Amino acid sequence: MLAGVRRSTAATAAAAVAVALVAGWHTAATVRSAEAAAARYGDTTTVLVMRRAVRAGEVVSAADVEARRLPHALLPDAAVAERAAGRVATVDMVVGEVVLAARVGTTLVPAGWRAVAVTPPGSGAHPPVVAGDAVEVIDVGGDSGAAVVAEEAVAVGVDRDGIVTVAVPSGDVAAVAYAAAGGTAALAVIAPRPRR
User: Fold this and answer.
1) Structural class in CATH, domain 44-105
2) What would the 3-class secondary structure string for the chain be?
3) Is the pTM of this model over 0.70?
4) Domain coordinates of the chain in residue numbers?
5) pLDDT tens across 83-140, in order?
6) The pLDDT of residue 57
7) In the predicted model, is pLDDT for residue 186 greater than 70?
């Protein structure tokens, strides 16, 4: 009986050694794979990544983002945001997106753009617009007919009188301001959002 116990103990010890060897081999292979991936993609850095989709105009909460280590090679060329919680999304943001500095701000006006108040021309009115809508600004009072003076604009505010404040690239601000001052600036919604 003592010989049987010894054989059982020896078999158990041999099995334990075999399991330890397999586990060690697997761990070493995993480490080698991780090292190879790190060598392939280079150094990593911690960045903020969206955990849920956020619409333009919404305030980003702490629960909307998480910190992740990503390889430099996989990051966009644009500056990444150091902080996002409490800031306003200047564009629609999707899950998994790296948060760029230009996509969050204290207002909807993107960096380098300008905001101009546009009053509906004549007795007309703009189409239904909410903050965050992408719009074109059209000067309807030109001698040669209507002309688009800003193809890429964002509504950043709407007041009770129908005056819409739009953010436009700095290169378009003079033409938009001229049409707005003359009361001939009209808006066309490019991509209307589903209303909630």
Assistant:
1) alpha beta
2) CHHHHHHHHHHHHHHHHHHHHHHHHHHHHHHHHHHHHHHHHCCEEEEEEECCCECCCCECCHHHEEEEEEEHHHCCCCCECCCCCCCEECCCECCCCECEHHHEECCCCCCCEEEEEECCCCCCCCCCCCCCCEEEEEECCCCCCCEEEEEEEEEEEECCCCCEEEEEEHHHHHHHHHHHHCCCEEEEECCCCCCC
3) no
4) 1-33, 44-105, 113-189
5) 888 788 877 889 999 998 878 877 778 778 888 998 877 656 677 788 778 889 999 8
6) 76
7) yes
